[in-house]
Specification:
- There is one protein chain.
- This protein has about 800 residues and is of the alpha+beta class.
- It folds into 6 domains: about 120 residues, Periplasmic binding protein-like II (D-Maltodextrin-Binding Protein, domain 2, 3-Layer(aba) Sandwich); about 90 residues, Periplasmic binding protein-like II (D-Maltodextrin-Binding Protein, domain 2); about 100 residues, PAS domain (Beta-Lactamase); about 120 residues, Beta-Lactamase; about 100 residues; about 140 residues, Heat Shock Protein 90, CATH 3.30.565.10.
- Helices cover about 45% and strands about 25% of the residues.
- The chain has a 5-stranded mixed β-sheet, with helices on both faces. It has a 5-stranded antiparallel β-sheet with strand order 15-14-18-17-16.
- Helix 2 packs across helix 8 and helix 20 packs parallel to helix 21.
- The protein starts with a helix and ends with a helix.
- The N terminus is likely disordered.
């Protein structure tokens, strides 16, 4: 009992002393953990903003709370900075963890779901759930013995509610939204007790309206608070656990006493008893205050000495480690380092220089430089010494061939720097092996020579366009010497900024040239142009430019291309196009003559033969009137002759119609409708035809051409399509007349066909081209065929 009273007496004094003299944390970290901490100097700490765990003072613009103090202490022990992230609730914190925005968070409870997302430390704080009510005696309340008519207010839903429901089935629970509402119900005597955790209760009991309430029990379900860290950082979890273990237990008790001060922490003790004990303890406190102060002073003195010794040892250890690291870095560097005296003798050489030159350990010390490089005589060395000593900057580097220990030569790059150290002067020689660089330079020169040789023998002008960045203009980095043979200008002249290939382009082709080039430069894509260029002698040539774009990153793009001389091919192409145009004109003329001949023959057949047949029919009728019934068998012969004459009449009409249908004289619209109806009657295939009521006048050649195209299209439908219906449209679209024929037949694949298999399609295509129009055929196997013929209207019709 005496010991208990002494501890209770000394506890406030020890608490104040501990708060005023907090020892620094010294966790024992491994080398791997220290390296991890050096790579992560700032850790992101997630805080759920709920008093008294964490709260933000807007006036002072700072965070405070139990979790904030704890994390400040742990971050100080780990030697890192903290980046505070505030969250409204636990769900927001979990969402931030899944997005990778949080490294660790305090004040978490370990759950099976949380183990899949966090690595939890050992519990650092135990927060009990207390029963609050009006005191009815000196003993604590037992929830198992309360009556069923007494209600207990508890926040729901929560783990506490589930715990009370399972362990205390006799208790009538009253769910509430928060702890304040539970205490309000208790004050209004609507419930007999309220269950509140110690943290929230410490805040609520500071308010005047709840000052009369007392802690009268503990339900036995404490919150074990842990610190969670992200699962993908196991080193962070180990570091956090070591730092937490190094934290003195008294500091956690101080943390709990500071943020959860309860005037009625002890359960079941009356207020009068504590008043008497306080008076007794106060008397003893006055007696022992001087002793405690003396002990604290002694302790502080010893702690200062201990901290000083630790700091000295840490600094010495850090200096030794830094020295070893520096020496290791110098020895294992890729650059050889030699400290040389004024007399050109080596004072110090690192391991890299010894390995580079093939010497053993310390074999280079006291060796003159002339032994490594005969060209470095004493006179030259003294000249370099004076230049380096009198210059504020290192001397420019140069390349030499050093002699290795085995007598071979090593190409190195040498740079010099003057140094004063410990009352002595040295010239530090840095040597770098450039064997690979020389080999790469030789390979590059060989590659450039090969490229120039290939480009010089290519039958065209090879060039490269380069753009250093997106903001800078393009320039010719290379033009082959074939330019002299192609255009008469040397490559150096074309590479000038004011020349280039654009200066060779014919004035009439400049617009197209710049259009294609600008599109390629803006889109970083391939460039292709074909047009006319002028040589130095004014000769006109055709050129074809093709360049491939390559992106080298950071806005740098190069175009590698070639300018081909296609003058001969272009002349042949133009001659062939002109020949085709003449042939098409000839074909159009022949077709016109043919149609005119057909029309003339049709008129002659219709007029001449029609007249003869009419006369013959009259003569036969006269014979029938004159000799009817007089000569045996004559009537039958006359009847047969009349039938033959009628058939001959129909044959004449069919021949004249086939040569030139008279309906064409009524207009192309009527002719198309007439032809479709004849096709429908002949094939029994339903046809839908649409023609405009008012059609602009059309030349006879174009009308006949469209009519012949329709005839050929319907013939193909009848022979090959196997269609169930046909649609024919004639429409005026802007300045063109469009004929459309659609069938729902079996269609065909639009692959290249062999000669002799598609004369009908070729004939339609040629007819449209002769009329100055265009023909489009769309077909797929099993999807029918659509034919579109576009012919321009006559200018007179448009005006």
């Amino acid at each position: 009992m005496k010991r208990l009273l002494i501890v209770l007496l000394l506890w406030p004094v020890l608490l104040c002393a501990a708060e005023s003299n907090v020892l620094p944390l010294r966790p024992a970290f491994s080398a791997e953990q220290r390296a991890w901490l050096s790579d992560h100097e700032t850790l992101r700490v997630g805080l759920v903003m709920q008093a008294p765990w964490a709260q933000f003072d807007r006036r002072q613009q700072r965070l405070s709370g139990a979790n904030v103090d704890l994390m400040n202490r742990l971050l100080q022990g780990m030697g890192v900075q903290g980046q505070w992230l505030r969250f409204a609730d636990q769900d927001a914190l979990e969402a931030a963890l899944q997005r990778g925005e949080v490294d660790l968070a305090p004040g978490l409870q370990q759950t099976p779901q949380g183990l899949r997302r966090w690595r939890f430390s050992d519990p650092y704080l135990r927060v009990p759930h207390l029963v609050v009510g009006e005191r009815r005696g000196s003993s604590a309340v037992d929830l198992d013995r309360i009556g069923r008519d007494e209600k207990v207010a508890v926040r729901a839903p929560s783990a506490v509610q589930e715990y009370l429901r399972v362990t205390h089935s006799n208790v009538q629970l009253q769910p509430v939204g928060n702890e304040r509402e539970a205490l309000d119900l208790l004050l209004r005597q609507e419930v007999s007790y309220a269950v509140v955790d110690e943290a929230r209760l410490s805040l609520l009991l500071r308010e005047t309206q709840f000052a009369g309430l007392s802690i009268i029990g503990d339900i036995g379900l404490p919150q074990l608070l842990r610190i969670g860290s992200r699962r993908d950082a196991p080193l962070l979890a180990d570091i956090l656990q070591r730092t937490l273990q190094a934290l003195p237990g008294g500091e956690l008790e101080q943390l709990q006493a500071r943020w959860f001060p309860l005037s009625t922490r002890q359960l079941g003790n009356p207020l009068a008893f504590w008043k008497g004990v306080s008076v007794f303890l106060g008397l003893i406190l006055l007696t022992l205050a001087a002793i405690v102060r003396y002990l604290l002073l002694q302790r502080r003195s010893l702690e200062r000495q201990l901290l000083g010794a630790r700091a000295v040892l840490s600094q010495r250890e850090a200096a030794e480690q830094a020295l070893r690291l520096s020496q290791f870095s110098i020895d294992n560097s890729t650059v050889g380092i030699l400290w040389v005296n004024w007399d050109s003798h080596v004072r110090y050489a690192n391991l890299a220089a010894e390995r580079m030159l093939g010497y053993g350990r310390d074999a280079l010390v006291d060796m003159p430089l002339v032994q490594l490089e005969p060209a470095l005589s004493m006179d030259r060395w003294l000249t370099l010494w004076r230049q380096a000593r009198g210059s504020q900057e290192p001397l420019p580097g140069f390349e030499i061939d050093c002699q290795r220990a085995d007598g071979s030569r090593l190409p190195v790059d040498v740079s010099l720097s003057f140094l004063r150290f410990d009352q002595s002067e040295y010239l530090v020689v840095f040597i770098t092996d450039v064997t690979e660089r020389r080999r790469a330079q030789a390979a590059l020169q060989e590659s450039e020579a090969r490229l120039k040789g290939i480009a010089g023998n290519v039958p065209g002008l090879v060039f490269r366009l380069e753009r250093a960045s997106a903001e800078q203009p393009v320039e010719f980095a290379y033009i082959s010497e074939a330019s002299l043979e192609l255009v008469g200008y040397p490559a150096a002249e074309l590479q000038r900024e004011d020349r280039g290939i654009r200066s060779l382009v014919h004035p009439e082709d400049q617009a197209r040239y710049h259009q294609t080039q600008d599109a390629a430069l803006l889109g970083d894509c391939d460039w292709q142009w074909q047009g006319r260029i002028l040589t130095r002698d004014g000769e006109l040539r055709w050129a074809d430019i093709k360049a491939t774009a390559r992106s080298l990153g950071e806005g740098r793009v190069v175009w590698d291309g070639i300018v081909w001389d296609i003058t001969e091919n272009k002349q042949v192409e133009l001659a062939l196009a002109e020949s085709r145009a003449h042939l098409r004109e000839l074909a159009a003329h022949l077709e016109s003559v043919r149609e005119e001949e057909k029309a003339r023959i049709a008129r002659e057949v219709h007029d001449e033969l029609g007249q003869v047949l009419t006369v013959l029919k009259l003569e036969t009728a006269m014979c029938e009137l004159a000799f009817a019934g007089q000569v045996a068998g004559l009537d039958e012969r006359l009847t047969s002759m009349k039938k033959l004459i009628a058939n001959l009449f129909q044959l004449v009409r069919d021949v004249a119609t086939a040569l030139r249908p008279p309906i064409l004289d009524a207009g192309i619209a009527s002719a198309i409708e007439w032809q479709v109806r004849r096709f429908e009657a002949r094939t029994q295939i339903p046809c839908l035809v649409e023609v405009p009521d008012h059609l602009p006048p059309l030349s006879d050649a174009k009308a006949i051409g469209l009519f012949r195209i329709l005839q050929e299209a319907l013939t193909n439908v009848m022979r090959h399509a196997g269609a169930h219906s046909v649609q024919v449209y004639l429409r005026v679209e802007q300045s063109e007349l469009c004929l459309c024929v659609i069938d729902d037949g079996k269609g065909f694949a639009q692959a290249p066909r062999k000669a002799g298999q598609s004369f009908g399609l070729v004939g339609m295509q040629e007819r449209v081209l002769m009329l100055g129009g265009r023909l489009q055929i769309d077909s797929q196997p099993g999807e029918g065929t659509t034919l579109l013929a576009h012919v321009a209207l006559d200018e007179e019709a448009l005006t």
